[in-house]
Structure formats: C-alpha cells, structure tokens
Design goal:
about 300 residues; mainly alpha; ABC transporter involved in vitamin B12 uptake, BtuC; two-stranded antiparallel ribbon; 2 strands; about 0% strand; globular
Length: about 300
C-alpha cells in the first residue's frame, strides 16, 4: 500500500506541473482558438531565467526563500515579456489568416526559441539548485511526499483558484469571456480585443514560468529541450480536461500525471508515453470535447 501512495503522490506532483503549463494552452485557445506550440519553450525559458537569477543571488549571500521568491518573480516577468512579444510578432499578424498559417508560425516559434536558448546557453544538462526548504511537519511522511512536491501541488491549486476568480468575477475576465464568445461583437461593445489577447498570453506565460521554476528546483536539472516534451504533455492534459476550461486543464493534468505514474510503477517506464497518448486517443474518440468540456453545435 505504501508503494501505491508513493506512485499516487508522484503522479499528483507530475500532474500539477502539467496543469500549470496546460492553463496557458487552455486560456489562449479559449480566447483565439489557437494552439500556442511555443508555450512549452516559455516554460523552459522561465526555468533558465530562474537559474541565472538564483546563481547571482546565491553569490550575493541571499537565503533560500529569498532566492526562490526573487528567482520566481524574475522568471514570471521575463517569460511574460516573451509571451507578449511572441503574440505580437508571430500570431497577431496572422489573426485573420487561415488556421494553418498560425499553426506553422507557432511551430516555427517553438523551434526558434529552442535553438536560441541552445546557442545562448548549452546543449548539456545544467544543475539547478534546490530552493525549496524542507518542512519539519512533513518528516513522518517524507518517504511519501517531499516539501517540494507539496509546494508544487499547493501552488497549482492556488493558481487555479485565482484564475477561476479572475475569469468569472473581474472586468478583465468578463472581457476575456466576451472576446472568446464573439470578437467582433466584443469590439462593438467597447472591449479592447487586442489588449485582452495580450493579457491572456501574459497570464499563460506566467503560469508556465512558475511551473518551470518549481519543477527545475524539484528535479535539479534543466536543458534547452525540457520545454518540448513538457509542452506536448501539457497540451495532452488540456485536451483531456476540455480545452478552454481552467478546472479542466488542472483535472486533465492530474489524470495524465497519475496515468503515467501508475503505468511506470506497475508496468514499465518504457510504456509511460504509450499509456499517456493512448488515454488521449480514447478521450478524442469517446469524448472529443474532453472530461469537463462542453460540446458545441455549429450551424451550417
């Protein structure tokens, strides 16, 4: 039974990271119906930014909590700036173009950012410092779940609640929902659609950066390619939960994380991706709108 709980908490942590990245996918798709395939690279850039800032702060003698907070803040600001710039450069000019053009642009931006970081940093894995301190109250169950994993899970829950509140009860959230429903009508009602889309990219990039910092601190290693695999898995999570739904993105991430964890523990680590994408295929066949998604009817 202890082994089961080890796999459970491992899947919970993994799924929480997928959820943080999937939130960006689902928000962008909900607003402009575009899959931002460069989103995984934003996650990677956030981790590298935190690594650089953490290295500088450690040399200056800052303590662990200060380094974590400032490194995460720097990663969020820097990654949000990247998300904003990407939207303006790669997606906005193609907003009225065929869907294929925007898709190719997104894939091209992903490849560009990968190679940009490769040239700016290195192709090797780099060690990332463990910035999350050990919590003494977790000592009795430290063999099941670590302090870093608790922080990751709690952060994901907090981010989901904040985003849900933002979308449902704030003026910006109302503007987001109006833009998602009908951009032209939203513009006629005085909504600045371009600003809403930019804010959506900024918020999604911020959540991805938080995920990048937390998982890098937990695992202790990063390289330029971590964003690609994480991005694909997070996209899968967004589709599983129902793309366009914030709670669905979190639920999809958790389902995917548990699927991979139990498949690795009880079958083989070689089949981790097989089980994950088999689950995606089944969802697309039997419930294409996702677990929490709502089916829509189009008039012809």
């Amino acid at each position: 039974m202890e082994y089961f709980f080890e796999l459970f908490f491992s899947g919970l942590t993994r799924g929480s990271i997928y959820a943080l990245i999937a939130l960006g996918y689902t928000m962008v798709y909900g607003i402009i119906e575009l899959i931002n395939f460069a989103h995984g690279e934003i996650y990677m850039i956030g981790a590298f930014t935190a690594l650089i800032v953490a290295g500088v702060l450690s040399l200056l003698g800052f303590n662990e909590l200060s380094i974590l907070a400032l490194a995460a803040l720097a990663a969020v600001v820097y990654s949000s700036a990247y998300g904003y710039t990407i939207e303006k450069m790669a997606y906005k000019p193609l907003r009225k173009a065929p869907r294929l053009s925007a898709l190719i642009s997104a894939i091209g931006m992903s490849i560009f950012l990968q190679n940009y970081v490769l040239l700016a940093q290195t192709s090797d894995f780099l060690p990332f410092p463990s910035l999350i301190p050990d919590f003494h109250f977790l000592e009795p169950i430290a063999h099941l779940i670590t302090s870093a994993e608790v922080v990751i899970v709690v952060t994901t829950a907090v981010v989901m609640v904040i985003l849900s509140f933002l979308i449902k009860f704030t003026r910006l959230g109302k503007a987001m929902r109006a833009t998602a429903q009908d951009k032209d009508m939203a513009m006629l009602m005085g909504v600045n659609v371009n600003r809403v889309i930019s804010f959506t990219f900024i918020i999604g990039s911020a959540t991805a950066a938080i995920g990048g910092v937390l998982i890098a601190s937990h695992i202790g290693m990063i390289n330029f390619y971590i964003g690609f695999i994480a991005g694909i898995k997070a996209f899968t999570a967004a589709v599983l939960g129902g793309i366009g739904s914030v709670p669905g993105a979190v639920l999809g991430g958790l389902v995917l994380g548990w699927t991979e964890s139990f498949a690795t523990g009880y079958v083989s680590s070689d089949y981790e991706d097989v089980f994950a994408f088999t689950l995606l295929v089944l969802i697309l066949i039997f419930r294409p709108e996702g677990i929490l998604g709502r089916s829509t009817t189009q008039k012809v």
